[in-house]
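Protocol step 4 of 6: record predicted structures for both targets in the notebook before any analysis. Target 1:
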Amino acid sequence: MKEVILSNADRADVLARALPYIQRFQGKTVVIKYGGNAMINEDLKIAVIRDIILLSCVGIRVVLVHGGGPEIEGMLRDLGRESRFVRGLRYTGEDTMEVVQMVLCGKVNKDITALIQQSGGRAMGLSGIDAGLFRARRLRPDGEDLGFVGEIDAVDAAPLLPLLNSAVIPVISPVALGTGEDAGHSLNVNADTVAARLACALKSEKLVLMTDVRGILRDVRDPDSLIKVINRAEVAGLEKDGIVTRGMIPKVDCCTLALDGGVRRAHIIDGRLPHALLMELFTDEGIGTMIAGDEP
């Protein structure tokens, strides 16, 4: 991508135009789910991290929830283990859960935390196990066994508040502490769901899901058919009309979960585009799809 050189006047104009958005969101909490190609491509990774640090520097309380599917897949492959999926969810046996926890809580989480620190931000890496952030039970859709895949029962966001009050960015891996029959065991939880539940618990202003698609497309074959803004009440109609389908359904469901839990806005954006976060949050036009909560 060719670098665009801005004059000093252009740079000043960009900052001035961003001021109303900075003032609007200063002191508010934004939960960002970070995954997909934006985590794999090194240039994109650095751009995303810098954007997150910028949000924190202007007074926005940022929580970063990360995935790590490709990294888990790569580690399993290196260990000679096959991945098995049930209804699109990774079957997580005991041996696989050890790998999941090692990759998510150890490598990926600490790599992101270190990159934030190296780039001039302040971050603390945590998993859902730490301080009892997330408690979960096994997910068994229609009685199917998924192994150590969890469904969140409870979120305790209180341990994050001192970090946010100190302008520290919590970096959260989606591993939860099991309850009931799985007490003492770790459970693998969907990162989008973790982000949505955490956004509710923190009474966040926004939930942002960074994906590998532009957002909700009215026609999946036409990348220019992006739906930029919809209301919570319109979601069911889009699903009924077949506009929200396949892999977009669980992402939209996470957005509606957050909105129903008190989050004001949910965004689905393309993390493959440099500075997608800033363009979505600091411009009227945005770059992805924003789902607005129904006004009381």
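Target 2:
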Amino acid sequence: MSRRYSCDIPDERELGLSAALSACRRGELVVFPTETVYAVATDAFSIEGVTRLREAQRRDRTTPIPVLIGRPQTADGIVLSLGPNGRALTEAFWPGPLMLIAPAHPSLRWDLGDTHGTVSVRMPIHPLALELLRQTGPLAVTAATVAGSQAPGSIDQAEALLGDNVTVYLDAGPCPEGPPSTVVDITGALPRALRIGAFSLELLREVVPELLGPDDPAP
């Protein structure tokens, strides 16, 4: 049975965060807001939890599940190397809507799908998400959708989609409407923007001038 917490009420916020932490540690699912949409998450290192997440979303293994972190330095434990370009991007744009696709550390025991040795990692800026992530450590996180549905901007929409598949719902009001996160692949010789969202290509190139756009040919 799921439980919903109104996180604009301080006492209920604390109860909700504690319940969400316990649920993640058990490999169960939680829903919380990010700066763009409500997301569904579980412990990134729980094989059972990630399987439960994939089944709740009717998601196959061909679409890997991203990881959210609560501190920039956490990336060093899950990414083999950010390199100077990746480091510069995180220093400029984290926390915020920038997702990096990076080589995953090969020693990690997790199963996020068919990642081909990579991990998609981001540090969100939403205060409730950050507070939870700093307690749980890395979470496997996607928009709180099921196949064919739109990403929910409210807790009511998320609950209507996922129901009792989720143990804890953290309600912080509607998410602001805006563009999705920008996605940059740093696994190649030069970083490449795969999706332009909240951060423009021009803004990214102020930090990494050699960054390739989605349609730029490889050098």
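Step 5 preliminary note on target 2. The first helix runs from residue 10 to 25. The chain has one domain: 3-207.
Proceed to step 6 after PI sign-off.
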